[in-house]
Amino acid sequence: MASDSSPRPGYTLPVFAAASAVAALKCLNGEVEIESVSLDLIDPAQTVNLAIAEVSRIRPGMALGISHSDPGDNLDLTRYTPVWALVETVSRKDSEDPIEIVGGEGIGKQVDNEGKAAIYRYAQKLLHHNLQPQLSPDQYIRVTLVLPEGRNLAKRTSLEAFGVVEGLSLLGTTGISQPLSSPEQLSQFRRILQEKARQYDRLFFCLGENGLALAKQKGIDPQQIVKTANWLGPMLAEAGAQQIKEIVLWGYHGKLIKLAGGIFHTHHDLADGRLEILTAYAMKAGLPGEKLTELFSSKTVQEGLEKLRQWEHESGENWVERVYGEIVTQIDRRSQAYILKQTQQPVQVRSVLFDRDRQIILHSCENLTIR
Q1: What b-and-e string marks burial along 37-69, b requiring 16 or more CB atoms within 10 Å of the CB?
Q2: 44 inside domain
Q3: Example GO biological process term (predicted)?
């Protein structure tokens, strides 16, 4: 019997945070032998059972629940990472809300939001919705979420560029983690591209949700947009095989910059070198030596961009345009060369790079009006 080759979806981090919290609250309220909990995901509207790795009382009035993240068939650095929830009973006078949610170790802090824990709307809603029915009458609780490996894992992401520091964020608008980085998903992306290639000579490649949202905001026809996730190399080759005339790449500069260095799979677990690439093209653009050293010491390419903007303001030199002009040119050239080598088909490639605020830094689309 043939096996089902469809990629297996998993769940987002907020789901495991909620599962751990529900288990801890059940334990706090006297339930024993908790091996799994039932959770309403809200979006999608379905109830699922999540395994609980450990649950125990820490002291009177406090319990700990632990689950392990399962993102499905994704290349996801949070796979199997432990997600802790400490639930403790608090006095009613200490809180107006019967459920207080706070971020502990490994939960990121929002730089642009007074350092508040990066526990976003869906995670908050999911926790409240599933904890509320478990509360005893007049019970008030504080839930402290902890990702023991969060601080180290965050160093391998672009979160700092988007204003989240010291840990991971509980982000997302749904409980399902779609396997956008699985090999099976690549096959689905290719099929979508093949269908659109029958209708359009120009397609817009968007790596993720930020690029997708910005492209639509700028008036790009959604029917011409193809989501690629991190599979840029194979998708560019497929565009050549389908004899597309033009591809426009829409992406966060911290992702697309990899193409300027010849890296055509942009997942952080497989290849990096972003700061090296930025510094190399800054040198080519004529940035002075002492500035190159400082640029290379940046924590992220977003921080590097901010330094270029600062030096531009101080000196009057157009460093952003000069450096990113070199980068965009190389992204286009190397992408075209990659397609030609893979398929022997010429495809024109253009690029649109934006920053963490979804502001376009630079683009190479002379024949496209970008508002």
Answers
A1: bebebeeeeeebebebeebeeeeeebbbbbbbb
A2: yes
A3: methylation
